[in-house]
Each structure stands twice: as C-alpha cells, then as structure tokens.
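::Encoded backbone::
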Amino acid sequence: MLPVLILIYANTEELQKIDKQNIKVIVPSQRQASKKEAKPFDKSNFQYDSQKDSYLCPEGHVLTYSYTNNYEGHSVYMMREKAICNECPHFGVCTKSKQGRTIARLINEKVRQKLEAQYEQSEYLTSV
C-alpha cells in the first residue's frame, strides 16, 4: 500500500513532485473544494483531444493550441475563426470576447485530473 498524504490545498507543481515519489495524495481541486457545479460552458464541458492537442467546444467547434505562458504555467487554446464565436447562439454566455473563446490548460493538467479522481474515489475522506 502506498503512503497517503491528505492535504487541504497545494499547487499542482508541488503535488506533481509528491506524486512522483509514489505517495498517494488526497487533495481537492479548487472546484471540488468550492463544491460549485460547473456552468454549461465551463472548461470541464469542453473535450480535450490529446492526439490533436485541441479542445472541442460544446457546440462542436475546435479550439487549437495558440501559445504557452510559462510564467503562469499553462497553455492557451483559442478559437481561430473569431466569427464562429461571435455568431454562436451562446455568445455572451460562453464568452463575451469579440476575439472568441480561450481556454487555459495547466502544463501539468494530467496531474490535476489524476488527483481529482483520487479525491473523488478516496476511502479516506469518510474517516477524516
């Protein structure tokens, strides 16, 4: 059995270091800690395609990789054809930007997703 570390909050860089040491980390993401339901056009409702390194919006349009912001630790994905967002019936709800929708993906997003799943499935939460 792996050693277990239960945390209240930590950033993904620190969590990745701990995870690499084969220590099972139980920590909620900000979304899980707030217990807020995702809005219809929340990033979690966009599908990430790792093969194409792109996101698919709920309306079926593709947001492609644009650049990486190393200072903030994420990659940015954008709708290349701004008119698609501007003419979308959900404009104003999904995005208010005339430049179209953007999504920021953490550089270590896979770690965040793994830890969210561990938190959801944790048998330790009921005993804390």
